[in-house]
Please model this.
Amino acid sequence: MWEVFTLNIMKNIYLVPLILTIFSLSVIAIAFQLDTSPEMIVGESMQARSFPIFLMILKLILIGVMTYQFYKNNPKPVTLEKYHTWGSMLLFLLFYLLTVYTDMFIGIFVVIFLMSILWGERRIWVAFLTATVTPGLVFLLFDYVLKIRFPRGILMNLYYG
Amino acid sequence: MFEQAISAMASVVVDPYLLGLIFATTILGVIIGVLPGLGATTGAALLLPFTLTMDPVHAIAVLATIYVSATFAGSITAILINTPGTSAAAATTFDGYPLAQKGEAGRALGIAVISSTVGGIFSVIILCFAAPLLARVAYEFRSPEYFALTVFGLSMLASISAGGAVKNLIGGIFGVWLSTIGAERVTGIERFMFGNYELYEGLHFVPIFIGLFAISELLVQSKTVNKIINTVTMKAVKLPTIEDYKKIWKTILRSCGIGTFIGVLPAEGATVASMIGYSEARRWSKNKKEFGKGAIEGIAGAEAANNAATGGAMVPTMVLGIPGSGTTAIILVGLMVHGLRPGVYLFTEQVEKVYQIFGSMFVANVMFMLMGLYAAKLFARVSLVPTQILWPIVFALSVIGAYAFQGQLLDVWLALIFGVIGYFARRHGFSVAPIAVGLILGEMVETNLQHSLKMYDGAWWMILAQPLALMFLVFAFLGLCGPMIYSWITKQKD
Model:
């Protein structure tokens, strides 16, 4: 029994149940800090904290069942992602920084261009064209047809004045 | 009532703007369905922000058209390149691709087109009759019944196709918890907002759905970069011959029934329907040995069932506000955003709009049939668009779509965060659809439980004293524990 358990720990099989358990316990801890309402408002119904706590207890029970299933079935460990996946997530971060500090459309342009290259596009001009035309068309559609105002930044300040 | 319904449905055909919109959306839906990874759900999530400025009927018609046309179009790539464009077309690959390899790709596509159209139209007809009847029953529902019904809907998440039952339930509970973020509806107490007042009214569905379905799919697709696709050549789509019809008509009818029924069940969808449709086609066939080698009944069984599920899934969505699948969860959000409150009132106060939506679905089925017959070869070429071009474009549409919903950058960050959460969930075998359905049903569960407790002065067991509520709770219990009880009984017998 312990052999299977230790082997599974070594293969990081229990990482997901562990993270989910920590999450559920944190939610319960935060829920206990929530304010309570006076009896005359709530009456015989629930306090605001009760429902999330109930949900997390239910979730903890299910996590227990899932861990037991992992122990019984000995699942294969999840393989590591290719650099395309991690790189794409890093590009999301870059998009956040560029949007906050420069302009949303500069962020979209840079991310589309870099993502195309990262995913294997060898023709720089194709990546550049995609990165320019896509946000351009989307901007025209949302600005002229759907009348959406975009957040201010370097480019939008030039456009809106 | 009947005349009103007929005239509302007929009004779709004489509205050139709506017809043009359905036509354009059908083309888009077929393209979305053909592109591996970009299924009906992702497509609807991406298109939802574009529908915000539209008239409610037009907006829902667009989303419903995407649903039916993308569900069909998944079969084109399933048959030609052995890659289902949508998960609902996975069963079509079993016999579609082998038949295409034999040089009969046109015949396989012809059977898929006809079966899908019959399935789709059959389910719209059922929708037209079943939805108002169910609405009449739902008129009697009060808080205890709605609470029990939503619990039943959540219990059905256990059997959503991807992921195991336990994982799906964990996902569903996570979704319900997400719905508790923001100010509590009765007392106004802030929950899990961490001082962020943009979350006071709770998490909005649109950015979350864009993240869960579109952004997470982008990250999943990043693993398939440089995948080599073998295409099968095809001259033209061939309509089934009389011999073919003789072979498949029973299968199509059976799958129409199966698909519609599976679609009506809360949280079940086209993927489950097509798998059951396929296995039933095999079970009832006289040529079982042909299955897996290019049996036309296999294609017809899967395709009729998955398109029949589209109309079926709209029944609980529109009548009870309980989505029948991931895509209908997005359609439900579309209904709410446009002020069409799903439920009994939709069928009493806004009957005309309801039947215009049904009419649009009917027209969409006819349009995708024409496109499937005359342009499938052209659409199949779309699937060859390189992923390194397609998915960066999806990224742009996702972030701008998330922003456009309320004009808040917070929604963009939420979409990206939930995209990453959705990706890691899928990486570890969790499906994202239960999270979405849980998020939608969460408010209904909590609010109706609160109202029920107030009704009975805190005596929760009184919910069990209501016959309809008890029935739904028993169904929920059987749905969750039935398979375990059955396997225990079988073991005892052995």
